[in-house]
Amino acid sequence: ADAAVYHFEAEINKKRIVAKCRERLEAKETYQEAVDAGHTAFYMEEDELMGDTFTMKVGNIPPAETAVIKLQYFCQLQVRNETKEFGECALAVFALPSVLNPRYTPSSLASESNRQFGHPNAITFTTVTVPYKFSFSANLTAQCPIVSVTSAKDIFELNYQGENRKTAKLTLQSEFKFDHDLEMDIILADPTKLTITYEQCDSNEKGGILGFDCLTVNFLPVFKEDTDTRNEVIFLIDRSGSMSGKNIMQAKESLLLFLKSLPTDCRFQIVGFGTTFSALFNEPQDYTEESMKMALEYQKNMNADMGGTEVLGALESIYAKEITGAGWHRKIIFLTDGDITNQTQVISLVRRNAKTTRLFAIGLGDGASTSLVTGVARAGGGKSAFVRNDERLQPVVLHILQLALQP
């Protein structure tokens, strides 16, 4: 998703091994040669179909030895402005994905006889229950004062490192089990303040990304308000079996909020998909009392009862239809848990149609695919967000709708 691994190392038997980035095939061959020769070797690769999944292999660990794995990566936090009792603030969301749900393999990647939930290249393995401990701490550094850090499911202790409250030490206090994504909301004051951050390069890194100085600028541009924008909004709702339970309830509540918040001068459509797909109307309808009544009835009876997760066909159907007319702008709002393996195909389709249709995406539930949700939004010229708990649903929905209704 919005992350890039830049360092991978392992320490075993007091020996430190630092990985080098290589072409996929070359790296696999080097790893296998080392293992076959009896050497201790480590290997990690990004999944070719799902960019939010990494696979790590460890070969030839001596008996009774402990292996320490160190992984470093850059990650862009999702940020949005909010209004609190003390005024305007910025909310930055940090999430450490800790749940990996089974991914549906669509018919385009698997034959009818072996289509299943899982990964097409999955290997068979035996699971063994072993005790584990998880600890988490973080050093926070910001250009603006850190107001607070909160979490819906976990308890953190925040200790400020200076009077200006721009640096802090964060420690997880509650016991963590890998049944949900570790997530926290970082509240920052003065979100519109102009800030510039400079990071000096590592002189030992030649030719790589760490060998370049980095400069980031944060500012709030002023745009001329366009009051003559006519929007055609398509709600694309994942109704596959993996959405059952809490996820489909969040999808229903999200759709209700969207419908109640639509401007009266727009046109809208609802498309639900699973193994097949179906649309509420033959074509997008004007916002009227009758169309809204039908939409609310659809929302009320919506369930995760449409089978697999064949989103490609649903998107192709939307793109194949003509936009209402000149001066109208089509926006797709996509609600999903993202549990599919053909992400590359879906993202490519969205990218090919980005000139005529913008796409915004909301990932629902723990384990929602970050690579699919952020990938389609980026390819479609829109924005993405995640709802892992009920407390964030309303502000996320309203924020995404506000962005979607802009030119």
Automatic annotation (TrEMBL):
Residues 232-405 form the VWFA domain. This is von Willebrand factor A domain-containing protein 5A. It comes from Schistocephalus solidus (Tapeworm). Gene3D superfamilies: von Willebrand factor, type A domain. InterPro entries: VIT (IPR013694), VWF_A (IPR002035), vWFA_dom_sf (IPR036465). Residues 1-75 form the VIT domain.
